[in-house]
TrEMBL record:
Belongs to the SusD family. Residues 79-218 form the SusD-like N-terminal domain. This is RagB/SusD family nutrient uptake outer membrane protein. It comes from Pinibacter soli. InterPro entries: SusD-like_N, SusD_RagB_dom, TPR-like_helical_dom_sf. Keywords: Cell outer membrane, Membrane, Signal. Residues 288-592 form the RagB/SusD domain. It comes from the Bacteria. Its main location: membrane. It is found in: Cell outer membrane.
């Protein structure tokens, strides 16, 4: 059974209602006294409050809190790409424009440099063996905490590189508070060790308590950790670290997940097969989703996602032309060489004869509209609200279709919306396996067939044949200009498939970082071809600004020199200045010094 996490919301309600004096009676500073750590329920209740910290889905309530240091909203799975080359928010991202300075203005523990959750996890690990229950039962809850600790440290290493590895709770006099950072290699070895412990201790899929973690979800996290660290080490040669162990870990985890428990969800209608996967109330029984976050109407535990996504209120963003251009035509050729490509003289033309996922990810005019007769604030259909029109802006004209749930009932629930969020998806396993096998020198046609080609088959796209990989001078040229390397043609296509399939699922930033491809952010941000007849009231050079080719330029006035990426510093984030002052042994990441 999929871990829907619906029950976890109920568990959290239990903590605050049926046992509502729990947190007051047992604050973290005193929870390790003799009145706790006595039963399985104690371990379960403790962990229940941890689940929502890491398995966030679309967030909670209004879901408009921002995630530091990235600056996108709590529904990171849908909005994380707004800081990447996939998207352009109406107000440009300071992270993407190399204007991030929050380390200078934020206090201690800001910008992601916060270890309070690690303290919560370590407190559990210091005490859970005290419970008077069998060791095997203790291990299940210990496996949950090791899963979350591995996830937390993985995120911290992505942000900062070297970070303090903490194995116990600290006091104000603990020497660890004034110690230097633990080297990245040592931290990641520890992360790999504890995720392996989580895999060993967690129950097999179907054997877990309803809505709690299982072994497969830990394998998925191990896959992400291994692929990220393995490729980061390969392309960031300045680290002088070998990533093969991590790539092999990723490959092994994928193989364990590819043994029959999961499969891609298919449909007889290729024009809907992909998009419909992301507009669901539940993933119970879904063969593709490994971990989800679901919501409960009866408990009034929901989130304002579907309403505000339909209105394009959060970030008011659109996809970029660079992203749209990477989709192949339905003959399997890039738009630069396919005779099927009809050009970009209008969005209607350029979406024709393309990979069916394009028109299920980006709205053509008149598609993915609010229901007839329903007014839900700022509509963005049948045409996008480009600058010059009223309502929430879609500055590129490429309005997002992915995640659009066409249900006025859910829009009217507002903060009690129930659209479910798939957190771990099997398609990512296939993509990661293909990439890990390539990086290990082991990707043959058989691997491609059960990964890339299985994903393409869902939408009726031609198979990728490693003996006949199409050329793509445009994409290769971008790699040459912005990355100083051209990946092998097969790797280029694996990466293309990942960008297309995982678009707007918050994987793109990590991909750019680990591939050492951050300068892709410098590719000029353009939108669709502006057709005056389609927007007769919009004024050129007043409401909108156009490139020499006639494409929308969302940042012509606000960011006239374009986005920038400084490779000497931006692959890592800075430590807050106040923390450097409190602990002189901490050294700032390169390039972020005052």
């Amino acid at each position: 059974m999929k871990s829907k996490i619906l029950g976890l919301i109920a568990f959290s309600v239990t903590i605050y209602s049926c046992n509502k004096d729990f947190l007051n009676k047992y604050p973290l500073d005193s929870i390790n006294d003799g009145n706790y750590w006595n039963s399985e329920q104690d371990l379960q209740l403790y962990n229940n409050s941890i689940y929502p910290t890491y398995i966030v889905g679309f967030g909670y309530g209004f879901g408009d809190a921002t995630i530091a240091p990235y600056g996108y909203t709590q529904a990171a799975i849908a909005y994380g790409d707004v800081i990447t080359d996939n998207a352009a928010p109406n107000t440009y991202s300071k992270v993407a424009a190399n204007q991030y300075i929050s380390h200078l203005t934020g206090g201690s523990g800001s910008g992601g440099w916060n270890f309070s959750n690690i303290r919560t996890l370590n407190l559990f690990l210091e005490n859970f063996r005290r419970t008077k229950i069998p060791t095997a039962t203790q291990n299940v809850y210990g496996g949950e905490v090791y899963f979350f600790k591995a996830w937390d440290y993985f995120e911290k290493v992505k942000l900062f590189g070297d970070v303090p590895w903490l194995t116990n709770t600290l006091t104000t006099t603990s020497p660890e508070l004034y110690a230097p950072r633990t080297p990245r290699a040592q931290v990641m070895d520890s992360v790999l060790r504890i995720i392996d412990t989580a895999i060993a201790w967690l129950p097999a899929k179907g054997k877990e308590i309803t809505d709690r973690l299982n072994k497969d979800q830990a394998l998925f996290l191990k896959m992400r950790i291994g692929l990220y660290e393995g490729t980061y080490r390969k392309y960031h040669t300045e680290l002088n670290l070998d990533g093969k162990k991590f790539l092999q870990a990723a490959s092994d985890a994928c193989e364990q997940l590819m043994t029959g428990n999961y499969s891609l969800v298919k449909s007889s209608n290729a024009a809907q097969a992909y998009n419909s996967l992301f507009a669901q109330y539940t993933y119970k029984g879904n063969s593709e989703v490994i971990l989800t976050k679901e919501y409960s109407e009866s408990l009034q535990m929901g989130v304002a996602f579907s309403r505000y996504f339909a209105q394009n209120l959060r970030h008011q963003f659109g996809a970029t032309r660079n992203f749209v251009d990477e989709y192949l035509c339905k003959d399997g050729l890039p738009i630069s060489t396919s005779p099927l490509f009809l050009g970009r003289d209008s969005i209607q033309l350029e979406l024709q004869n393309r990979d069916p996922r394009l028109s299920q990810t980006i709205c053509n005019f008149g598609t993915y509209c609010l229901a007839v007769g329903v007014s839900q604030g700022a509509n963005n259909a049948p045409k996008p609200n480009i600058p010059g029109l009223s309502g929430n802006k879609c500055p590129t004209g490429y309005r997002l279709a992915k995640w659009f749930l066409n249900d006025p009932v859910d829009w009217n629930r507002v903060t009690n919306g129930m659209q479910a969020a798939p957190v771990f998806r099997y398609a990512e396993v296939l993509l990661s396996y293909a990439e890990a096998k390539f990086e290990l020198g082991q990707c043959d046609q058989a691997v491609v067939d059960k990964t890339i080609n299985a994903i393409r088959d869902r939408v009726g796209m031609p198979k990728l044949l490693i003996t006949a990989i199409p050329t793509d001078a445009v994409l290769d040229g971008n790699y040459t200009k912005y990355c100083a390397y051209i990946p092998a043609p097969l790797l280029r296509e694996i990466r293309r498939e990942r960008r297309v399939e995982m678009a707007f699922e918050n994987t793109r930033w990590d991909d750019l970082m680990r591939w050492k491809a951050g300068r892709f952010l410098e590719i000029p941000v353009e939108g669709m071809k502006f057709v005056q007849a389609q927007f007769p009231t919009v004024k050129i050079n007043t409401d909108v600004y156009l490139s020499s080719g006639g494409y929308l330029l969302p940042y012509a006035k606000t960011l006239p020199n374009g986005r920038a990426f400084d490779e000497k510093k931006q692959y890592l984030f800075p430590i807050p200045v106040e923390d450097l002052t409190l602990n002189p042994k901490l050294k700032q990441n390169p390039g972020w010094e005052q």
